[in-house]
UniProtKB/TrEMBL annotation:
Ranges annotated as spanning the membrane: none
Family annotation (InterPro entries): R3H_dom (IPR001374), R3H_dom_sf (IPR036867), R3H_sperm-antigen (IPR034068), SPAG7 (IPR017330)
Residue span(s) of domain R3H: 46-109
Protein name, UniProt field: Sperm-associated antigen 7 homolog
Basic and acidic residues bias locations: 21-49
Superkingdom of the source species: Eukaryota
Pfam families the UniProt entry points to: R3H (PF01424)
Molecular-function annotations in GO: nucleic acid binding
CDD domains on file: R3H_sperm-antigen
Region (Disordered) location: 1-49, 134-162, 207-231
Ranges of biased composition (kind: Low complexity): 144-153
Amino acid sequence: MADLLGSILNSMEKPPTVGDQESRRKAREQAARLKKMEEEEKRKKAEFRKKMEKEVSDFIQDSSQQKRKYNPMGKIERSILHDVAEVAGLTSFSFGEDEESRYVMLFKKEFAPSDEELEAYRKGEEWDPKLAEQRRRLKEQAALEEAASAQTEKTQACPNSNYRDKYSHLIGTSAAKDAAHTLEANRAYGCVPVANKRDTRSIEEAMNAIRAKKRQKRENDTGAHSSSSSS
């Protein structure tokens, strides 16, 4: 019986020691501090949001402002400002290389930034519309000059001038035609154009030429035979 009672007493939870009580007290204090910090953080967010809503409202009502740039702020503040801007119907962007330098810019919908303007802000540059217009014109001019230069080189490489018409008044039609063929062949480094190889005579002209050659040959043969008989 005594052994059973002792076993029951030993199995019962022992009262907390001084060390356990201290640990629990510290845990309660830490939980209270965390709760207080969360409440303080929540309060600060609410105050910051209220402040941003007031500034955004003033910005919208100010017709002289097209955009607004804020000082660098933390990630949470930027998130709140972006949310307020979206609710208000504005366009917002964050710029800055690192977290410490990140800032927000707001734009009214009718003055939304162009890709060139956004690229300037991303590079850390100030946006100058006049300077951007000058750069755009210079790029367009350079592109036109490059295209004209390419067209000139193409024209020089493949001339389309008619040498026969160009030189006919100087050396005659037939000679000009031969000169044209010669110049074209030289430009092709000895490669004679297919057009030069083509017989441009009509079928009738070609047949007449063949008949004339045959007739001439018969006459020559007849003359030679007569001379042989006479001798």
